[in-house]
Amino acid sequence: MLDTHQLRVFLAAAETLNFSQAAKHLHMSQPSVTQHIRNLETHFGMLLFLRSGRKISLTEAGITLLPMARDLVLAAVRADEMMDTLKEEVYGYLWIACTTTPGKYILPSLMADFLKKYPKVEASITVTNRSDAMRFLNEGQAQIMLSSVFNYHPDIEFYKFITEPLVLIVPKNHPWTRRESIKLDELRKANMILREHSAGSYMVLRDGLAQKGFDISDLHKILTLGNSEAIAFAVQEGVGVGFVSMLVAQRIVKEQVAIVKIDDLELSQDIYIGQHRRIPSTSAQVAFWKIAIEPQSEALLKIKSYLP
């Protein structure tokens, strides 16, 4: 019967092509690594490595075994993690990669609730752009990803976490605050503060306006800013008007700006949570996912209290 520990040793040796480096990586002695490889070769009855002095390379048999060994080791790790969750012993490290709005206005509430329940977990949140967050997830560095834009990937399981409105905010003393709503065409006259083109909120605004026959390039843009709270603070200072998520408007500048309704235009963005299908889930990841998608979780209800 195959020994998963021997397969781990084989993988380390195959990835480094150096028994000494493999031994260092596995915190083993080099003779022990060599013996495990020999035992594995005896089991299969064929050589897995070609030795030439200090240099080694994979044989055809070794190359064939490599992807299967990865799958078997991953399956063994997944089995261990799943059995840990049955014991309700949640511990270890959890890394979440996310885009700006989820990272600053959604994850803190979720994380507070999660760490209160599972104090043995050490967590890290990286707020970055969407492509980097996806890369971290695909490379197995991050276990969870949150993003305001859904990018299909066959190996990533996505779940629509929450839907939040995108609203127009203006300074408190702006003439529009004295009206119930404004016409869409009136946006052409405003000094507009926008996000960069790759931002999820920009895409939502662009597509929402396009559905009404309005090109976003027709807006009088005076400033581009890299995050929503910067837009909120710029609006507060009277620089112009801008679109931000309801969470930003309610939690950052609620008393300093006003939300203005636009006739026949309602915008919203979906926030998605994702995890890799093929990389084994840790006990901390399983526990966090459960909290995040539970409709009646305390943290999710708190977040929704800021939304209409």
Describe the structure.
With 308 residues, the chain is of the alpha/beta class. It has helices spanning 4-16, 19-26, 30-44, 60-86, 100-105, 107-117, 130-138, 200-211, 228-236, 246-251, 283-293, 298-304; strands at residues 49-52, 55-58, 92-98, 121-127, 144-147, 156-171, 191-195, 220-225, 241-245, 257-260, 267-276. The longest helix has 27 residues, at 60-86. The mean pLDDT is 86.
In short:
With about 300 residues, the protein is of the alpha/beta class. It folds into three domains: about 5-85, Winged helix-like DNA-binding domain superfamily/Winged helix DNA-binding domain (Arc Repressor Mutant, subunit A); about 90-160 and about 270-305, Periplasmic binding protein-like II (D-Maltodextrin-Binding Protein, domain 2, 3-Layer(aba) Sandwich), CATH 3.40.190; about 165-270, D-Maltodextrin-Binding Protein, domain 2 (3-Layer(aba) Sandwich), CATH 3.40.190.290. The protein is about 45% helix and about 25% strand.
Number of domains: 3
Helix amount, in percent?
Answer: 40-55%
Order of helices and strands: HHHEEHEHHEHEEEHEHEHEEHH
- What would the principal axes of the Cα set say about the shape? elongated
Number of helices: 12
